[in-house]
Amino acid sequence: MGKTHISQKMVLSALAGMIIIPGSALRVSAEEADEQPFVQAAGIESVLDQCYETEVKDNINLYLVPAEEGEYLNMAFSDTGDYTYIRSAPDENSDWVGKLYADSAAQVLEYLDGWTKIKSGSVEGYVPADTLLTGEEARQCSSEYENNTVTVEADVLNVRAGQGTEYDILAQISRGDSYETVGDPVNGWYPVQVGSIDGWVSGEYVTAQTSYSYGETREEEEARNAREAEAVVQAESSAQEAQIPGDETAAEETAGSGSGAVAAAGSGTAVTGQAVIDYACQFIGNPYVWGGTSLTDGADCSGFVQSVYAHFGISLPRTTYDMVNSGYGVSYEEAQPGDLILYDGHVGLYMGDGTIVNAMNEADGIGICNADYANIIAVRRVI
């Protein structure tokens, strides 16, 4: 995208009656200037309109950053802890209307004394000026806030060990999957991380884009919290319904011993491993959240597996360290769809054909990768 570079000296000339734009010059006499307080010059008229209409003269410097920073005219990034409140007025005692999170970007609307008016996502309001990075600081740190991703446009796309089709296939990803890039493209190939696999995908079959994270309104946060709470209640309810009174012995025999035993009788029900996988795959592309158990709003690896099985009334332990004792062990060669594939600190659901569906990491969310991407320490069957 082309950049329009306007120096402060140029605009000061405009205030004196002349504006110079590359390739053209407009001169306005003093009499004409009295009749028209500013010049309708392409590229800056809206800026001058806003400055004059709001009579916030100091804000003109917001738009007059050096040439190389043109794209950061009114962009800011959060410089805070977990979040800062976005308030309805430039006053600490005013109501808060939203939150600006630590990794958020914002549009600057107005500078005030000690406060800045911003818009981030759907929320608009005021934050303390010292919670934002603007101007040169924003330019220098902008890459830290960028979310550079590629989205798969092919039905199945190979993730390769290098930048070319002659390199080994490390994993396969599907149409619509999005992955964060972990570096700059090389020769038309993008570096991505799929689970714990670092590889390359061809730029011919992906759409690349850069985006930012934004704040949320008070109402949006309340709705998100409600969804997460509902998901937890549903998981707990499913686990409780799976308990069979008076049949603790049978459950123990089915599950085996240890703290990771299945608390309910998944075995002996009509649930099939393929049904488990079909259900789990509905959530591919949803986010990874450390400590989360929500299949829609975010789960970590064990939370994902636990919540999937909870849907079928089968209660699993919360952590991978306990899941290693769930059900009963089988060899990897005997693995069937729905089996738990356990690694050192990670777990996924076996899909068949050497693949697993799992909550991978914050960059990749819930997705599919090769089951042998890392050393397998156990395969457990719980149905």
Query: How do the strands line up in the largest sheet?
Result: 20-25-21-22-23-24
Question: In the residues, how many domains can be counted?
Answer: 3
**Helix-strand category:** alpha+beta
CATH homologous superfamily classification of the largest domain: endopeptidase domain like (from Nostoc punctiforme)
Helix content percent band: 10-25%
| Mean pLDDT reading | 76
Q: Give start-end ranges of low-pLDDT stretches.
A: 1-45, 47-71, 242-269
CATH fold-level name of the largest domain: endopeptidase fold (from Nostoc punctiforme)
State the CATH class of the largest domain: Alpha Beta
The backbone outline, from C-alpha atoms, is flat
The biggest beta sheet reads:
6 strands, antiparallel
Radius of gyration: 28 Å
- Can you count the helices? 10
N-to-C span: 56 Å
Give the amount of beta strand, in percent. Answer: 25-35%
CATH architecture of the largest domain: Alpha-Beta Complex
The count of strands amounts to: 25
